[in-house]
Amino acid sequence: MNTHQLFRRSRTRLALWYAGVMAVILSLSGFSLYRALVQSHWVAMEREIESIAGTLHDSLEPMLPAGEDPTAVLRRILPELCLAGQPCNVNPTLIQRHTTGISDRTLYAIRLFNHQGKLLAFSPNLPPQRFQMLQAESWQTVQSVNGLRYRQFTTILHSAGANHPAGTTSAHPSWGYLQIGRMLEPLDAETRRIQWTFAVGLPLALGLVVASSWWLSGLAMQPIYQSYQQQQQFTANAAHELRSPLASLLATVEATLRVPQSSPQEIQTMLHTVERQGRRLSHLISDLLLLTSLEQNSSPKPFGYCCLNDLISDLTEEFLELAAITNLHLTHQIPDRELYVLGNESQLYRLVSNLIANAIHYTPDGGDVLVSLTARDRTAIITVKDTGIGIAPAAQNRIFERFYRVDSDRSRKTGGTGLGLAIVQAIAQKHQAQVKVESQVDQGSVFIVEMAMTSLGA
Ligand code: ADP
To answer: Do 187 and 307 belong together in one domain?
Structure first.
């Protein structure tokens, strides 16, 4: 499988996982929302029924007759109700009075039962019921013969005339029962509307989730793909860098073997070449290993206090000989106060030494290299300034890349591996330091390293 296919497959798998997880979350949330909405409508409806039942109950009770046959009284106080067993005469007043303003009265149905549960009266909009007898539960959902569903609430009625004097017991503690029913059709319609909204909305949302998952997985894969490509580029570059000295080394050895009668002087020259190429290889490999260990963050040594004044004096002294060979004027400036930072001393030595070595290598004979240390607020600033060949603006962004060289031939001649500034950058990142470069072609370059000082030196 090629790289492209591998990344495409990973992206698809990632997108499917995203979409799957989001689909489950969305469906669960949608279902919970749907349940909550239906439940809240149901509870609101029951409250409304209870409230209407309470109002009717309070209005009816004082007017209820104490007698067993309430037909005449009921006809008088509830003229809009149909009396059981008698022709129904529609004349809405009372129900309308109590239900108007709350809801459409056609939604509501009223029934009155005597204390034995026998139907006495019912509202005309109520179709003949299946349940002519009273049911025991206070809340019921019933269905009329024409298929309409009702949610109904039953409450006990006590008549004013049924009040018995204190101390006497009544055979019938209640006058009867009032039953208020509300048609469930509007609620069912509302529930269907919500179901439709979810049925259309959820697939739409899932479609969007799939599309955004694909886009997001593409975004997530991008840095991995880039890093993979960089890694591949790095391997190719490293192989290329290793091949040149190795090829030269092998050619020298082969030449020596092919000419057995070489003079000791010739053999000496060839051995020098072998040694030089061997060193170059060893240098390259140790640089590569250092870069890898810096990236893996696998330094065995914990950070400690490092005195930057000592570090700069030591390194300047160390490079004086090299500077003298190339006829350069290498100087340093350090403050009287000692500046300390927290870090790995050998790595910090490596960082500054790479910068000084570059400054020396890329400055023509007779030039100047100045290494200085200053403090600003709580930051230590190391500057390596040279009067060398400088770096073109376009190259300034790339010089920290591994194996990047502005001028490959010149760099190779100086023994550079093309990893010096990559190591500088990696060490700086590990120490949370900033490295900047300011340069002008043929004028010189300044490399600036800024690091936070520790309280010991601040
Ligand atoms: P090299 O081993 O080739 O020096 P570096 O990573 O140290 O690799 O530097 C990368 C490139 O940056 C060099 O090849 C060189 O062209 C340029 N460079 C680095 N330091 C300087 C400097 N002080 N002056 C001019 N060019 C520099």
So the answer is: no
